[in-house]
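User: Hey, my collaborator sent me this sequence without any context and asked if I could get a structure. I don't really work with proteins. Can you help?
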Amino acid sequence: MRRVLLMAALLVLGGGLSACKQPLLRSTGDTPALDTARLELEIKPLAAAAAPGVLGFGIMNLVSGETWTLNGERRFPLDDVAALPLGAAAIGEIEGGRLKDGEILSVREVDLAPPPSAIADAWPSRSDYTIHTLVEAAVRGSDTTADDLLIHRIGGPGAVTAWLVDKHVAEVRLDRYRREIDPHRSGLASFRADWKGETAYRQVQASLTPAQRQAAMTAYLADPRDTATPRGMLRFFQALSAGELISHAGMTRLMATIPQDASPGLPPGAHFAHKRAQMAALPGQPGVLNDAGVLTLKDGRRYAITVFLAGSTQDAKAQADTVARTLAAAGRSVH
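Assistant: No problem. I've predicted the 3D structure and written it out in structure-token form, which is a compact way to encode the shape of the chain:
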């Protein structure tokens, strides 16, 4: 029954590998073409090995618009990657004069969200934070309470999604607060203040049976809310790069807030500004691991890259290896 439930959820997320490569979207440009044969050869076997999980992948040349995807039209849970469109929306509100970096928001008990959240951990000893600090905490620190404070101040998850749709980013959506999403996917009610802190929250999760957590995760994987397609995330980065979402100065600010590194397997001298999200699961139960960002090569070429891995029953190390090998394949395709 567990296998049936999991596979039912995965049918919504991804199904099989048939017809999973989307048509290439090409436009003229001065940059070299993607090595699509390499992508085909290297990434499809990784997707097959991740079954019953579903691997979603997309890469876009941000100059020419050339794109290659695997399961590019299928929806995957955003998890912490939601901080990227949220951060962009917050900067957009600042640029529009509807928010100010120095505006102070006060944390209430109802605003507290599950770990990781240094802001929740510090409450009630500290309750006041500037918008600037909250954007940093949400995007760089994956602070769930910072997410919720910003979303509420902007007008709610629906306001962020409406802003994205208005900017022609139609396949990325935010629907709920993190204090709702994270507990519900474990089988819990909305977050409570006495659950704050990693230890307390894990103890509450441990009070549920594996079957309860399995059922909650199956429902989470099948839920279209708070999801994105790989194609949608590529479009987000394209719009961000083109100045369609926020100004170029705002884009620079957002990208500087995203963690940057020279990830193993990527071309020498390249830097990857990216947001990673990992939702740990019980051994043998499905989890979520995402990585999305912009790869900048030594010669200045820039590529948006998105990797979503949902429903995998691999252990955490194997899931991380799948994502790392997918990113490495992407790096080899742009040499």
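In plain terms: The chain has a mean pLDDT of 90. You can pass these tokens on to your collaborator as they are.
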